[in-house]
């Protein structure tokens, strides 16, 4: 496993792993228990939006996961705001929002919005508001093309690895930026073709919506998959 790029809520890495296994891990992202606003009790709504629309927007605001919370935990958040832009930063309570500048609604002068929201754990397979993020992958590719295109490919993709083989070059597509289409486009402009072969390994990208880090999201997805495999193993025995 080789880390290609790592940011606060995004991670891309190269791994020699079967695509069937990584696809299972990808699918189990929506099995990770995630906190989200589930029910909203609105006491006052002078905004131009219906109560249902306000509740829907509240539900999609990512909440930071906290330790020690389970399905039995009862958590509530409050929001009380007078005129101006109402954002996720106006929400108060034990659970914190991942981003404080998400707009909810705009209140005119003299208008108010007051509500209490109930938070619970859920899974992405139940509703998208419980989804922790996205995970996707692609194969490492090797693009074989004429040597005359070497400098042009370097110009467009300076970080790409290029190997020479006789009058041909082999472009190794194993970074975050996918270069296969670029290589094909360069050849097509000159009336020539390139050959793309599947290489060894996969390029895996994980993007978190903010409830947890991309690293924890990957680990938790594996843990949830292990739980189900253990359960299946017990039933088979």
List the helices and strands and how they pair.
Blueprint lengths: L1 E5 L3 E6 L3 H9 L6 E12 L5 H9 L15 E13 L3 E3 L9 E20 L10 E14 L3 H7 L4 E5 L2 E6 L6 H10 L5 E14 L5 H23 L1
Antiparallel strand pairs: 1-2, 2-10, 3-6, 4-5, 4-6, 7-9, 7-10, 8-9
Helix pairs in contact: 1-5
Proper CATH architecture of the largest domain: 2-Layer Sandwich
Structural class assignment: alpha+beta
How much of the sequence lies in strands comes to 35-45%
Sequence of secondary-structure elements: EEHEHEEEEHEEHEH
CATH secondary-structure class of the largest domain: Alpha Beta
Largest sheet: 6 strands, antiparallel
The unreliable regions are: none
CATH H-tier superfamily of the largest domain: RNA polymerase, RBP11-like subunit
Distance from first to last alpha carbon:
34 Å
Any idea how many domains?
2
Q: Tell me the total number of β-strands.
A: 10
As a percent range, the share of helical residues equals 10-25%
Quickly count the helices: 5
- Return Rg in Å: 24 Å
Strand line-up across the major sheet: 1-2-10-7-9-8
**CATH level 3 topology of the largest domain:** Gyrase A, domain 2
Task: Considering the chains and any ligands shown, give keywords for the structure.
single chain, 237 residues, alpha+beta, Gyrase A, domain 2, RNA Polymerase Alpha Subunit, Chain A, domain 2, four-stranded antiparallel beta sheet, 10 strands
């Amino acid at each position: 496993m080789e880390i290609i790029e790592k940011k606060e809520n995004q991670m891309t890495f190269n791994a020699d792993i079967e695509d069937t296994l990584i696809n299972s891990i990808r699918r189990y992202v929506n099995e990770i228990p995630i906190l989200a606003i589930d029910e909203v009790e609105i006491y006052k709504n002078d905004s131009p939006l219906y109560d249902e629309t306000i509740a829907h927007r509240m539900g999609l605001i990512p909440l930071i996961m906290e330790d020690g919370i389970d399905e039995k935990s009862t958590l509530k958040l409050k929001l009380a705001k007078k005129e101006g832009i109402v954002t996720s930063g106006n929400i108060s309570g034990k659970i914190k929002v991942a981003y404080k500048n998400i707009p909810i609604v705009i209140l005119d002068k003299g208008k108010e919005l007051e509500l209490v929201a109930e938070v619970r754990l859920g899974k992405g397979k139940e509703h998208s508001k419980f989804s922790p993020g996205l995970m996707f992958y692609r194969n490492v590719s090797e693009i074989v093309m004429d040597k005359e295109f070497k400098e042009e490919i370097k110009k467009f993709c300076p970080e790409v690895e290029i190997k020479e083989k006789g009058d041909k070059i082999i472009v190794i597509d194993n970074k975050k930026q996918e270069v296969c289409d670029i290589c094909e486009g360069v050849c097509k402009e000159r009336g020539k073709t390139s050959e793309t072969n599947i290489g060894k390994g996969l390029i895996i990208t994980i993007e978190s919506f903010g409830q947890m880090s991309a690293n924890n999201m990957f680990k938790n997805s594996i843990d949830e998959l292990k739980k189900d495999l253990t359960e299946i193993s017990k039933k088979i025995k």
